[in-house]
Amino acid sequence: MFLTEKLRLVLKSTLAVVSIAACAGATIIYAGVNESGGEFGVFGTPGTGLPGEFGVTYEFINEATVDTWVDTNQINFFRVTMLMERMCPVATGLGSTFNETYFSEYEAAINYITVTKGAYALIDPHNYMRYNDPSDQPDSGSIIGDTTDPKAATTAQFQEFWTELASRFVSNPKVVFGINNEPHDMATSLILENDQAAINGIRSTGATQLILAPGNGFTGGHSWTQVTGENDDPSSEWLFMLVDPLNNTAIDIHEYLDEDFSGTHETCTQPGPSNLAALTSWLQEFNLKAVVSEFGGSNDPTCLELLPQLIQYLSENDVYIGWSAWAAGPFWGTNSACCGTTVGSLEPGQVNAEGGADGYTTVWEAVIQQTINLGGKRSNPTTWVIFGN
Ligand SMILES: *[C@@H]1O[C@H](CO)[C@@H](O)[C@H](O)[C@H]1NC(C)=O
Ligand SMILES: *[C@@H]1O[C@H](CO)[C@@H](O)[C@H](O)[C@H]1NC(C)=O
Question: For the Glycoside hydrolase family domain, which residue ranges apply (predicted)?
Answer without folding.
Answer: 33-328
